[in-house]
């Protein structure tokens, strides 16, 4: 009998008081396990990944009633009962929320006093709308007359209710408000002697008046007014001067703020009517400034552009091939204009580390989702490159995250005298990691190894000498070694491929490793033989391939002992189970027995045409299992 149990869906549980012996199994082995591992770790455990696990339970015929019998509430742990109750409450809350979303909408009520606090673009900052102004929930079928009464109750005391203009037509909100969230501007007058102006949809346009003070470099939203869309802006100069508290004969300059990035200057000679200037919209923002204080470098349009392009960046220090002792400084915030040269950002970052700004390397999002290092001359670029978006919108108040690295040389050298290449290196602990090095473009393998010496995390007792191995095009943990490159070989002749089209970054089919002390001296007759790990089939490689020094005529038992020393993490008991074979091109040539007195014969290992050894040693043993979690067992039939 098979029973599938899921605590989140069926709210059932296995009786913990029943006598049971649990087993877990995989494709090869069945082994005993504890009740705690079988139940607690899979159903309602503390780890989130186990709270919704499925279990496959085999129950004997005569034990079905005992195991799956109804469990009294007294035997259910309080933690499980509490989990069930919380899930019921969550489901009910989500159900109610979905019902309200279908029948209700959210509005934010903006009043003139809130608008007056804004000194930048638009009318209200997005953070004010999202975090400060209360959001009210209204029914979608509410009529406009009911909305007026709703605003009355929310914003005003009953003793000083302003007199609202009667709405000309009573309509449902969902017929005039299309979004699930709308921002509504509430116009009112506390002065009974100054009622609200009439609004004719065929004639009037609602303008919010901003005044730019060239002395304080600040925008102030003064008020709002109705202007005739059929008239020119120049006809309203005296009216605007009266609103701003200026003499009626003051010369003014006018701008239309279409968006934070688009501010249009309206010349006095402009013959277009207001309706044409705002593209027949029913409202807009009019910016006014005194002509006497306006200059080409200090005016409303220049200031608005400056506010729009001003962006805050958070700089995080990273490391190129990080060493253990290196620690980054705390991230810091800096503000730059997107039009500023990238050199300005490099100088600010370099000043915090007391280094030359030409050594600062920025990692930017150049295309798609891939982050690239910016190696070009910074003087020809702008801070706009540090963004992770193609289009900048300052209203979202986004802080862009930028990574930087302090290089050991000028960044410009990469595009002029150096090449960027990716390869692997083997650390002293045996792990293989990716590395990026910058050898000379016309350099040799020796130059590449010299460049690696800058970053390699040496361990005590090492030789501090490197070699470059040719490896196969395989995953990180399955790199077969083919040969050792000669140090005089040009990098252009090393097996490589372009990582991305249109990208200078190269990936070498190579691995750098520190030469063991006992392999520094090479005598005539020595041969470095590649060694690979495989399980049953020579094509099923795993682990890290390496090379071992073999001398013609030496005892095979010495080769076995040398192999043993190459595997310090393997116990003697495990090594005794290893099988050894000579492989060639992923095929088994013959097994190696390491008989006493048997000697190495390189002639047997050589290619009949070239005379060069073409075989490699294979270690046949079981691949180590990599269990990330011993939780639920998943069986696919």
Automatic annotation (TrEMBL):
GO terms for biological process: proteolysis. It catalyses: Thiol-dependent hydrolysis of ester, thioester, amide, peptide and isopeptide bonds formed by the C-terminal Gly of ubiquitin (a 76-residue protein attached to proteins as an intracellular targeting signal). Residues 402-622 form the Ubiquitin carboxyl-terminal hydrolase C-terminal domain. GO terms for molecular function: cysteine-type deubiquitinase activity. Residues 183-367 form the Ubiquitin carboxyl-terminal hydrolase 7 ICP0-binding domain. Its EC number is 3.4.19.12. Keywords: Hydrolase, Protease, Thiol protease, Ubl conjugation pathway. InterPro entries: Papain-like_cys_pep_sf, USP7_ICP0-binding_dom, USP_C. It comes from the Eukaryota. Belongs to the peptidase C19 family. This is ubiquitinyl hydrolase 1. It comes from Caenorhabditis remanei.
